[in-house]
C-alpha cells in the first residue's frame, strides 16, 4: 500500500498508440476494500487503463501503482497480486468446471493441499459445486461468470479488476455476482469494475466517468449528483408526467419544440429534462395537464450532461 493509503492509483497516466491518445493525463486513487465503478462510452479508454494498471502495457507518460508497486517497474509482481476478469475471460470451454479451477491454480503455482483447500473455498463462495463435472461451455452465462471469477481469484489477490463482468447476463445472475463482489469487498478485497449498467454503477461506493480518454468526474453518487457542472447555473432538472393516456414520445416531441430545453429523455411514462429556469413558466402554460416537478439528476443524467458539455465545447471550438 502506498503512503497515501491507496491500493490502486493512477498519476497523470497517459497511453498513446502511435498518434492516438487512448488515455490522457488520468489520475485517481482507490483505497483498500473500495468497490470502485468505472464508466464511459465504448472506446473511451477503460480497458487500456486496466491493462496498464495490471502491468500488461507500459504508460507513455505518468504512472500508477498497485499495492505500492509502480506499474512501470513491477509489472511481473503486479500480475501475481491482481485478479483480472473480463467478459471474455479465458475459460476452457471443453474442460469441466473442476478442470478449469485446477488449471488456473496450476498457472499460479498453487498445488497439493493448498490447491484442494482453495478449491473448496471457491466452491463454497460461488456455489458452483453442483456443476463440478459439467463442461464450462455448457454452463449458463451467469454460472460461466461465477466460474470465471473463481478462476480469476484462485491466488487470493487483494486487488481485482473486473472488465464488464456482467455484460449480457440476466438480472438475477447479475445480482448474485454482485453479491459475491460485495462479500469479497467486505473482506478487504479492492475492486475496480467497469460497467455500462447504471444500476451497477449506483451500487459502487465511488464511481469514475471517462470520456474521450479524459477522466471527467470521480466521486460518490451523491457527490456526482451535486456537481455544479451537472447542474448548470440558470437551469433546473425536472420530471414531466402527463395523465396515464398520454404517449410519452408525443410529450417529448412537444417539449423539444419549446425554447429553453437543453436535454430531454423518456424514463418509463415520464420525461427527465434539463430546462432553462427562465423558460419553465412558459412551459407550464404550453403543456397543460402535465405535472412538472423538480428532481435530482440520476447518475445517467449526470453523465449525459457532462458528455454534452464536452461534445458541444469541442464542436464550438471546431467551428
Ligand atoms: N493496441 C492498440 N492499438 C491501437 N489502438 C488501441 C489499442 N488498444 C486500444 N486501442 C484504442 O484505444 C481506445 C480505447 O480502447 P479501450 O479498449 O480502452 O476502450 P474501452 O473504454 O474499454 O471500450 P469498451 O467499452 O468498448 O470496452 C479505442 O479507440 C481502441 O481502439
From TrEMBL:
Molecular function terms, GO-annotated: ATP binding; ATP hydrolysis activity
Keyword Coiled coil: no
Domain of life, per lineage: Bacteria
Keywords tagged on the record: ATP-binding, Nucleotide-binding
ABC transporter domain residues: 8-237
Cited InterPro entries: AAA+_ATPase, ABC_transporter-like_ATP-bd, ABC_transporter-like_CS, P-loop_NTPase
PANTHER family: ABC TRANSPORTER G FAMILY MEMBER 20 ISOFORM X1, ATP-BINDING CASSETTE, SUB-FAMILY H, MEMBER 1
The protein's name in its UniProt record: ABC-2 type transport system ATP-binding protein
Organism: Bryocella elongata
Organism phylogeny: Bacteria, Pseudomonadati, Acidobacteriota, Terriglobia, Terriglobales
Amino acid at each position: 500500500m502506498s503512503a497515501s493509503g491507496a491500493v490502486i492509483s493512477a498519476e497523470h497516466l497517459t497511453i498513446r498508440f502511435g498518434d492516438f491518445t487512448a488515455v490522457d493525463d488520468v489520475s485517481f486513487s482507490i483505497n483498500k476494500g473500495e468497490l470502485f465503478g468505472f464508466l464511459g462510452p465504448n472506446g473511451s479508454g477503460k480497458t487500456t487503463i486496466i491493462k496498464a494498471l495490471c502491468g500488461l502495457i507500459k504508460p507513455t507518460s505518468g504512472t500508477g501503482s498497485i499495492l505500492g508497486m509502480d506499474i512501470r517497474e513491477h509489472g511481473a509482481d503486479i500480475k501475481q497480486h491482481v485478479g483480472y476478469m473480463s467478459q471474455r475471460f479465458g475459460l476452457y470451454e471443453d474442460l469441466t468446471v473442476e478442470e478449469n479451477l485446477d488449471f488456473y491454480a496450476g498457472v499460479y503455482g498453487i498445488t497439493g493441499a493448498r490447491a484442494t483447500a482453495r478449491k473448496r473455498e471457491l466452491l463454497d463462495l460461488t456455489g458452483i459445486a453442483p456443476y463440478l463435472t459439467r463442461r464450462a461451455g455448457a454452463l449458463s452465462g451467469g454460472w460461466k461468470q461465477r466460474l470465471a471469477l473463481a478462476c480469476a481469484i484462485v491466488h487470493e489477490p487483494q486487488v481485482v479488476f473486473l472488465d464488464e463482468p456482467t455484460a449480457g447476463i440476466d438480472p438475477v445472475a447479475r445480482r448474485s455476482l454482485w453479491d459475491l463482489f460485495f462479500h469479497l469487498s467486505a473482506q478487504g478485497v479492492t475492486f475496480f469494475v467497469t460497467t455500462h449498467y447504471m444500476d451497477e454503477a449506483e451500487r459502487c461506493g465511488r464511481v469514475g466517468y471517462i470520456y474521450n480518454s479524459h477522466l471527467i468526474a470521480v466521486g460518490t453518487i451523491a457527490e456526482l449528483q451535486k456537481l455544479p457542472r451537472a447542474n448548470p447555473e440558470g437551469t433546473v432538472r425536472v420530471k414531466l408526467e402527463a395523465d396515464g393516456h398520454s404517449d410519452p414520445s408525443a410529450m417529448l416531441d412537444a417539449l423539444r419544440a419549446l425554447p429553453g430545453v437543453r436535454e430531454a429523455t423518456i424514463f418509463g411514462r415520464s420525461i427527465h429534462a434539463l430546462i432553462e429556469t427562465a423558460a419553465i413558466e412558459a412551459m407550464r402554460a404550453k403543456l397543460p395537464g402535465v405535472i412538472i416537478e423538480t428532481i435530482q439528476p440520476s447518475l445517467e443524467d449526470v453523465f449525459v450532461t457532462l458528455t454534452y458539455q464536452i461534445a458541444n465545447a469541442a464542436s464550438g471550438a471546431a467551428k
